[in-house]
Write a structure and sequence with these properties.
This protein is α/β, with parallel strands linked by helices. Helices cover about 50% and strands about 20% of the residues. It contains 7 helices and 7 strands; from the N terminus they run βαβαββαββαααβα. The strands form 3 sheets. The protein has a 3-stranded parallel beta sheet, sandwiched between helices. Strands 2-5 form a two-stranded parallel sheet. A two-stranded antiparallel sheet has the order 3-4. A hairpin with a 4-residue loop joins β3 and β4. α1 crosses α7 and α4 packs antiparallel against α5.
Length: about 180
Amino acid sequence: MCIYIYIYILILILSHTGTPGVGKTTLGKELAQRTGLNYVNIGDLAQEGQLYDGYDEEYQCPILDEDRVVDELDEKMVEGGVIVDYHGCDLFPERWFHIIFVLRTDNTQLYTRLESRGYTGKKLQDNIQCEIFQTIYEEAMEAYSQEIVHQLPSNTPEDMERNLEQIVQWIEQWMKDHN
């Protein structure tokens, strides 16, 4: 089981994904602060609305009801100006996105980050393997038009700042080109 997180912005739609521990939530929240866009965490949305379809004992986590989540988000996405943070590549409609950024982290750093979060056993190993085999990047390339999928390094605070600057510049240019 691979875990993904996306950040979507409608009107300019941006997806941001990567293995747990690569800095997606931190980047998404900071991006929302810098741009004034609304930030929605799918885990929180699912918990608040009880948008689950069972519980996965092996990974010790609830199973998301993907259809209900998409239905819940669709109206917000049509309104635009939303950053969505979640794990799952192919559940969101392609029509929602103009660009996708896949964050990548060195496996040694990622292992340490996930271990510090309490990941153990199969959950830890599967997430590290997802990063090693570029599973998230490949799934994004299969699910969406390849020209909108981009990888960004996320190993250091400096990487995070460069990524924020790059994405903010992209947003500004997109807005300029489409307004």
